[in-house]
Amino acid sequence: MNNRELFLQHVAQTSLSPIGLEIVQAEGIYLYDASEKKYLDLIGGISVCNTGHRHPEVVEAIKKQADAYLHVLVYGEFIQSPQVQYATLLTQHLPPSLNSVYFTNSGAEAVEGAMKLAKRITNRTQIIAFKHSYHGSTQGALSLIGDEYWRNAFRPLLPDVLHLEYGSLESLEYISEKTACVVAEPVQAEKGVVSPSADWMQALRKKCTETGALLVLDQIQTGFGRTGSLWNLQTTDIIPDVLLLGKALGGGMPLGAFIANKQLMRRLAENPVLGHITTFGGHPVSCAAGLAAMKVLLRENWISQVQAKELLFRNLLVHPKIKAFRSAGLLIALEFDNFATNKKVIDGCLQKGVLSDWFLFAPQCMRIAPPLPIREDEIHMACEIILQAIQES
């Protein structure tokens, strides 16, 4: 049996029709399959590879850490330099109140930890999220997902979860003294890149403060420069009680984190002791890779170029079949009339060497979220191929 047959036979599938590319190499913004075909990657591992695939400094950091030690003990007991250095760098580029980092294996696990922290701090049970939000696929995170299609098959889920209308000022009145936390995205990516007003985000912050509910901001997909600023906190002008990170956090390695004030975070360490634990969270190799990737991101000028590249995509991608163009930096949604059209365009792009995808809650929309180092000539080439695929769809 060849690798494709073995893949279908022995690797658990997430859909009945996986993309099925056999990738043998990745470099910069390109992927290479077993037939040596080259693909321009417009989704970057779903907003993971913000510094590109296999940045040399990230690879070197991985090798150096692997030569020193791998897993040594459950998270939080030993002093491990990659964790210490990365947590320090992260907090140096966050508001002073966000000064304690709990590393996890993934963004979904960060969501789980934040929910436990909120319940522990407030002694409340109600958790509020928003319709068409996405926060992960574990049972707690799944309870927060704002779409019944994805939740229904796995009920019963967490009780006392309320889903409100995203961007609605009236809906904020449901936040009360019963609410442990409100979990929100600064941009709803899986809805097809939908952004609320700054006024709404500020009203959300104010309501949480008034009621004593923790505001948990999910930047798992929008962090690390994706929207044109490091955390998107600058554009919303709010500071959350808990910040969620993942995806690009590990520089291509598995890593997540929830970040809060030290006074809040220490509540997970007492009554009960070990109130939140993980074996592999903050793995030293993942932290070394993420640390190297963030240093590269801070040193290069890619974030400052995001808005210009976003505008270039907007100016180039004009076609009667494109019903809407929504963007938050280099997180872009092209909306078509239905999923069938979108799928034809995505498949046509793949045949022509451009990898794209669709959004969970907006299947009629094409996802564009390339590594941030993508050059202008590569944007021109990608858009030309997209327009050809649209014309042929």
Commentary on this structure:
- The protein has helices at residues 3-10, 44-47, 56-68, 81-92, 107-122, 139-144, 148-151, 198-211, 233-236, 262-265, 284-299, 302-316, 339-351, 376-392, and strands spanning 23-27, 30-33, 38-41, 100-104, 126-130, 161-164, 179-184, 214-218, 242-245, 256-260, 324-327, 332-335, 354-355, 357-359, 362-368.
- It is globular and about 60 Å long.
- The protein has a 7-stranded mixed β-sheet with strand order 4-10-9-8-7-5-6, sandwiched between helices. It has a 4-stranded mixed β-sheet with strand order 1-2-3-13. A 4-stranded antiparallel β-sheet has the order 11-12-15-14, covered by helices on one side.
- α3 runs antiparallel to α11, α4 packs parallel to α11 and α12 runs parallel beside α14 (376-392).
- With 393 residues, it is an alpha/beta fold.
- It contains 14 helices and 15 strands.
